[in-house]
Amino acid sequence: MRTSIRAAAALTAVAAAVTTGVTTANADTHTGRADDGGYGYTQVRKVVPDSAARFRVTSPDIRNGGTIPADSYADSFGCSGADKQIRLSWHGAPKDTRSYAVTMFDPDAPTGSGLWHWLTWDIPASDSELGSALPAGAVSGTNDAGQTGYLGPCPPVGDITHHYRITVYALDTPSLQLPAATPAAITRFTMSTHVIGTATITATARRAQ
Q: What's this model's pTM, rounded to 2 decimal places?
């Protein structure tokens, strides 16, 4: 009986925190604000191992902490951007890298699990940039909208500022052996045991009206 009471109390506390937007020990620093559009927020689990090396990624289109340009917004979900894929270049990855993968993830999406906007993998280890065209052998994966390739931001009107984490992963395998139609969560799960280095650049988007 006492166990049931404790469990019920814990569930009530969690529900209250989600409803009010109160931050918890696992919440990100930009959450739980009064302007969150009424959405509760829970941070998803960090899956990059602490042992992974850190290297550097840059972009001619965005700067770390800056905003995503209008032409890189989605042309769907109420937005009228051009879905222009953000260009990337990187250096300093581990010497034993055998391939790269790139993702763009929005942890602020009101889904309970974030939103994967972009996944590309099996980028050859000899490459150090990604433009509009994929290098030979690379796979353009399926995003959470069910589309292949890059999907630009389109946060809900009036919601909090969304933080789009673009990450280049250095992997210890030349191929993930996954078809392009693999769901984003499964792709990232498969990738998790192969990550030996990461480079991340984060840019924001918000629609006030």
A: 0.79
